[in-house]
Request: fold
Amino acid sequence: MSERPDAPDRDTLLAMFEIQSRIKLCDERFRSLLTSGQIQLIYYSPRGQECISAGWGVHLRPDDYVVTIYRGLHDHLAKGVPLRELWAEFLGRATGTCKGKGGPMHITHPASGLMVTTGIVGSGIPIANGFGIASQLDGTDQVTVVNFGDGASNIGAFHEGLNMAAVWKLPVVFVCQNNLYGEHTPMAMSTGVEFISERAAAYGMPGVTVNGNDPVATWTVMGEAIARARAGEGPTLVEARTYRFYGHLMGDAMEYMDKDERKAAMEADPVVLYREWLLANGHASEGDLAEIEEVITAAIDDAVEFAMNSPFPDAAELYTDVYAEAQQ
Amino acid sequence: MTDTIETSQAVEHPVMPFAGAINQALDIAMELDPKVYLLGEDIAEPSGGVYKVTKGLSTKYGTHRVRKTAISEAAIIGAAVGSAIAGYRPVAEIMMMDFMAVCLDQVTNHAGKIRYMSGGQTPVPMVIRTSAGAGRGFGAQHSELLEAWMIHTPGIKVAMPSTPADAKGLLLTAIFDDDPVLFIEQMMMYWDVKRYGGPVPPGDYRIPFGVADVKREGTDVTLVSYGRQVHDCLATATKLAEEGISCEVVDLRTLVPCDEEAVFRSVHKTKRAVIVHEAVQKCGFGAELSSRIHEELFSELAAPVQRVGGANTPVPYANNLESDFLPQVHDIEAAIRKTL
Ligand SMILES: Cc1ncc(C[n+]2csc(CCOP(=O)(O)OP(=O)(O)O)c2C)c(N)n1
Ligand SMILES: [Mg+2]
Reply:
């Protein structure tokens, strides 16, 4: 049996805070630049879901793989995609992670282990199995974490993918970031089970639901699942319950969301609560945390400036990268 | 010009957004026939669809007839196929055309083939409405036009209107047609009343499939197009008229069936043809049509038929690349000049 990780030490606690803050501050910057009209793009805010990515982020090694979705900024940052290239890609610049050709829905940065970002609901799941197969065949102990939403658990790819992973004991952790909505539809209106994790039983793999807004609980569950995968014991479905603060995408009127529910979720901002918890429990001083935030803010200033001053891709880039060779 | 377009302009019907015309057609069809029902993601209230195209319909007809589904494209199309065979007239929505890839088996192996495989016993009278198109910075997986996939599958009819009035009349025809119809709506046109709005006659009217509409008459070159690119053709025609080049713009409106006769009539007159569509040019519908024009009118042509389509690439994200991907007025103009 894989060993149950102990409680997180101080460094781990602060590393999680750093990732969460990086996500929160990046998101705030995106939204403020979008609102003021300084940038224009389709933006899926991950605000509210920070603790989930931080929870697996601190367990992963640089050579582990991550697959995610259009709402992926938090996952990109948790896997260590560098800020400058990330911002440049969001703004469609030549210096972006994908030369400006993929955009925010398709961030790819193999150097960080961020392998695929998909805009097709559920499609990352079978692809994650492929990374798992490669690690299995290579005989490495790399782990793949694939992130998707509650809505994605209703599409065929989810069911086919989980079954295959269980049969082949693939080193994959399926992280369902359950923010209670799929686009404009509340989960209860589209999903026949109360907990997505119940579905794991149908495929013969462990399934666990965790409060994804509780960083330590999430860290513990992710740690167990990742350790299991690394030890060759097979996949786990982790359902991390959370909330999306800003609806499906920027500009969403959110008329289908319960106002009080959203207000309560935002008042229980997991990043703010975690910050208070760190202070109250003596894990860090106000100065420690403020310093982390200042460093991130400076790095974001730098990344925004870098991205804004970067050129758009050269017109010839339209035709490159379609095939291995240049197009005829 | 068809009666519809002429009358609509003559008596000044209210100008509507493209999306509003689709909504009206759905409303009329549901009112007329209790067998018509809708299914798709997010289509019910309060949101009424992510583009608000189905706004109000679930309130009016109930959620048993305006069925909001899970994110399950294969299940959506499969359910439409089954209920169509059982006598209903489902109108399924696939939110964006790229997601057709997720349910292609149900569309091509089932919706498209079942009438034939059953020797005509089990028709599949259903509509798949889908929004499509580049130009909004959505990147490679939310921007494609894939009509050629469906045209290449015998058994499926395909419509792709360019104006609100055509959209309404064609959608009503589609719903009451006894075959599966793929109905393609370019997102850029939904709510942009200034560029794509137009007068829409009230009430129930039908525009038959397989009847093209000459949106502008001309004598020097025929521009054949469909969907949003008809507007680009009209803009090009206006521009070239200043130099005395007279373009005729033929809007196909439906691709299966395709009004080839209308195209041949026009090209017979102008001796020149340029085919324009947003989909990737390679193996696009333009290739088929160009071949047909050459087969029928080869000896009359003053120049080889030209095609203008999307670049042979996935749709890029960066703004500048995305507009280079799309066929633009200057591309159409250049193609026309090649024929002159
Ligand atoms: C196959 C497919 N169908 C529909 C869509 C449109 N769509 C994009 S996001 C989304 C909701 C997904 O919800 P969920 O999986 O819960 O993820 P969340 O956005 O909540 O993070 C839908 C329906 C899509 N991108 N892909
Ligand atoms: Mg969700």
Observations:
- The pocket of thiamine diphosphate (ligand 1) is lined by residues A 71, 119-121, 148-152, 179, 181-183, 248; B 41, 71, 73, 95, 99, 102 (CB under 6 Å).
- Chain B has 14 helices and 14 strands.
- Chain B has two domains: 15-199, 213-339.
- The mean pLDDT of chain B is 96.
